[in-house]
Amino acid sequence: MSVARNIASVKIRLGWLIILAFFLQVMPFALSAPSSFVELKKSLVVLSYMLLLWALSRNFHLWSMRILALGTVLNFAAIAANGGLMPVSPEARLHAGMPAIGESGFGKVLPEGTSVLLPVDQTNLWFLSDIIPVSFVGGVFSPGDIVIGVGLLLFFVEAARWGKTDSEKRRATYQQVVMGEKR
Fold first, then answer.
1. Average pLDDT, stretch 92-103?
2. What is the separation, in whole angstroms, between the first and last Cα of the chain?
3. Is the separation of the CB atoms in 169 and 121 below 8 Å?
4. 145/147 Cα distance (integer angstroms)
5. What are the beta bridge partners of residue 132?
6. Which of 43, 55, 75, 180 could be joined to 14 by an S-S link, Cβ 3.0–4.6 Å?
């Protein structure tokens, strides 16, 4: 069985809700100017995280979903503690090669949409916010983002093995039933 077929055979509960949560988080920011409808967008971000966490919790039969949920909880904690948007460190933006935004931009929604520019000393749970610059991708990430990245990597490893385990079980059952063999 191919790896792609193995991944496709993984049973994801409430997969549609994971997709909906993603769209609730991204689409309002993509469809309007960053500074418009800010309170509605904040509410949609919080709602999307709650839906995502619920859907991920329904998939704890996969270890990778537990890791994804942990990263999501870390991000959600930073977002909830800072009024509904992920705080981004201005220093981390500079180290990542992103354009500088002066102090007049503090507390405002960033052009990227889902974040707010806040210095570390004005950020609640600053250690969970976007403070990790990654210059080769031109972005700033949070510890939760890193955990989510590890969770996604583990999901693909787990999913690639998922089908193999199932096919081995089917083959063993076939051999026992049809061929009369015992393992």
1. 88
2. 22
3. no
4. 5
5. 141
6. 55
Could you give the CA distance from residue 77 to residue 82 in angstroms, rounded to a whole number?
Answer: 9
Cα torsion through 90, 94, 99, 102, rounded to 10? 40
Q: Which pLDDT does position 166 carry in this prediction?
A: 54
Q: By C-alpha distance, which of 46, 69, 72 is closest to 57? A: 69
As given in the structure block, the two tokens for residue 75 are 């991000």
Each residue's pLDDT tens digit, 75-89:
999 999 999 999 999
Q: Quote the DSSP letter at residue 77.
A: H
| Residue at token pair 């870390």 | 74
Q: Which of 120, 122, 121 is nearest to 133 (CA)?
A: 120
Of all residues in the chain, what percent are helix, strand and coil, respectively (each to 5)? 60, 10, 30
20 class by beta-carbon count within 10 Å (0-12 exposed, 13-18 middle, 19+ buried): middle
Query: Tell me: the pLDDT tens digits for 123-157?
Result: 999 999 999 999 999 899 999 999 999 999 999 99
Q: How far is the C-alpha of 42 from the C-alpha of 57, rounded, in Å?
A: 23
Distance CA 22, CA 16 (A): 10
H/E element, 173? helix 143-177
Res. 32: pLDDT tops 80: no
Looking at per-residue confidence, does 140 or 176 come out higher?
140
